[in-house]
Amino acid sequence: MVLAVGSGSDRLAIVCDAQYRVPVLNEEALATHRQELRRGTIVLACLLLLSRPNYGYALLDALEKSGFEVDANTLYPLLRRLEKQGLLTSEWNTDDSRPRKFYATSKEGAALADTLKRDWHDLDTALLSLKDDS
Amino acid sequence: MTATSSPTDRYVAATLRSLPERQRQDIEAELRALIADAIDDRREAGVDADSAERQVLTELGAPARLAASYSDRSLHLIGPEFYLDYVRILKLLLSTLVPLWFVIFALVTFADGSPADVAFGGALYSALETAMSIAFFTTLVFAIIERVSAVRTKRTATWDPSSLPEVRDRRDRFSALIGGVIFLAVIVISLVLIQTVGAVEGPDGARVGPVDSGLWESGVFYIALLIAIASIPFHLLAYYTGWSTLNAIANTVFVALLAVPAVWLAASGRLLSDDYFRAVGWPEGADVIAVVVIVFVLLITASDAIGGWVRASKKRRTR
User: Fold this and answer.
1) Structural domains in chain A (count)
2) How far is A71 from chain B (nearest CA, A)?
3) Across the interface, do B33 and A100 touch by the CB < 8 Å criterion?
């Protein structure tokens, strides 16, 4: 079953309650748990999306459209950190009227994305097997 | 600030202010483009210019927070990595230095000619000041360590189970501590009773107690009592933080402050009143009791001082 499709936290809480008859978590605790689970996926999503060079605001938009909720003030510093680590490369694009800094996944970044993707699949498999056992 | 600077200008300036010089130009250019893109997007959706700018900046959040995120700066004074060490060292310093300072200050002011109550009050105030200075500088040092990454990475000390304190040992020491307080109270009360109620008529008609009257009135006993009372919170704190070498040293100084003057007074015949013992018909009593006092004081204080060192070394060994 899919629980986390871009829905608001309220809807998820109601789904939990109806399906498993557990007490509804308060909104704050629920948001924290979901945030914890999603935290690491933003890096992977960026590395995958930036296989085609893009600039900060457009990337934010693309992430949101793909269902990755991330704040602008988290994403922009994150891009610079990844660049500093050599996972992204950057270039100023002055073709448009407004110069923009374009980021692209480097070779190291692509390698990391492969590793993370494998880990994600492993986790998914592990979680599915847990569900089968119960 | 001029009236023409836009909210974006002010936002960017506030963000860049705390960033390293070499990053500023690049971040400024990027940040301005990002803000402009976001504003354009909202205006296309029909939001007016001012509201769009306001919304975008609100979403970006406090400039200081954004700047900290750009420069990987921590937004806490002392982080979880050092917090436990910070608390441990703060407790250790407060539990050893403050009571010691209190006693030394009281003694020095008293020896300088101040009355006992003035010395006590001054020492109390000074001890509070010392406690605040210790807390401040310990915090400052840890806040600096937190921010110097070279120190942070060098740290190798890890917790291991052998550093756990002995449970039984602590309980025993707590009962010993309570026993010590009761013992102190009994000594003080009996001393006062013997000196006042137990006083007899001396050769010149005045009532004399067993303790030399000049010494009794000098207030020296207040100071002794002060030291003994100050040692109670000291022991209590040491009990909670665990004994260290520093605790043992402080304890030894405490004990010496009581024992050395007491033994010196008794040995030089200044502690007891010869008149009292002559009046009760036991002229050599002053010498006998003086020896008893010396032996008693030496035994009690030595066992206390040695006990502190034993506890400290026990703790070291188990580490």
Assistant:
1) 2
2) 8
3) yes
